[in-house]
Amino acid sequence: NQPIGFPHRFHFPKTSRKLPQCLIIGVRKCGTRALLEMLNLHPRIQKAAGEVHFFDRDENYNKGLEWYRKKMPHSFRGQITIEKSPSYFVTPEVPERVRAMNSSIKLLLIVREPVTRAISDYTQLRSHAATSILPSLTTSIQQQASQTTSSISRTFEELSILPNGTVNMFYRPLVLSMYHQFILRWLEIFPREQLLLVNGDQLIEDPLSQIRRIEDFLGIERRISQHNFYFNETKGFYCLRTEMGDSKCLRETKGRRHPDVDPKLAIKYTYAYHTLVKQGRIVQPECH
Ligand code: A3P
């Protein structure tokens, strides 16, 4: 919506591209996009447009910090640049690489009830798999397509519960919901005060409650208000309203309908998880 005559990539003088002072490190499917878009309503925040994957992909990391900086948006002095790439959370090399860039960086980690997160992950993987087989359906590789179809048509329960009735703790969507084991790596590298845990379930129900905590954590004035959010009945989620009165909801890939899953699965998962902890196969962090 650039005014006529405005160069497409216009930026104000006295702005520059800065390395991020805050990262949303994950967790995938916990509301990372919603969180970034909501924070971007704040006049002191500038967001990187896409997921840059600088710290988790060697081919990007090897290009160096100057490459990363150029991926950042222009910002005024005093503004905070935020980037989000949810795979940072689970990639072992990332915490040390982030510290090497900026040891006082602020980290946001959004989490959600673990089984709901796993179902969201499953729903996304299934929808990607469904799209990726479409081209092959138009070719003669019908057999391959039908195999893929059968794997994606397996229910969440079929993938999560082994034939002997126990939980499949190697099923990736469930593994990624074991937040503790990944958080530990970050807490070995960063002091606890630099990491804020954001409640992703609350972000859906009452976004302002979480945004206020983050404004305080980042040390910026509380500028985002209830006026910036309105509940959209059709989408079933809060959508965003800017100061100028423009409104926007997140894309349809955010807020997908989940399949019905037997609620007993959540209990089974929690039990299996605690058993692993008791057996010392997952270490609990000492801080809260
Ligand atoms: P579902 O699509 O499974 O409901 P991420 O951006 O990390 O991939 O997270 C996607 C999730 O963000 C969605 O998962 C949705 O539940 C959640 N979310 C939180 N607030 C939202 C909002 N205001 N609009 C849409 N999705 C939102």
From TrEMBL:
Binding site for 3'-phosphoadenylyl sulfate: K29, C30, G31, T32, R33, R112, S120, Y238, K254, G255, R256, R257, H258
Species the sequence originates in: Clunio marinus
Domain Sulfotransferase as annotated: residue spans: 20-275
Keywords: Disulfide bond, Glycoprotein, Membrane, Transferase, Transmembrane, Transmembrane helix
Protein name according to UniProt: CLUMA_CG021026, isoform A
Cysteine pairings via disulfide bonds: C239-C249
Active site: K29
One function term, GO molecular function aspect: [heparan sulfate]-glucosamine 3-sulfotransferase activity
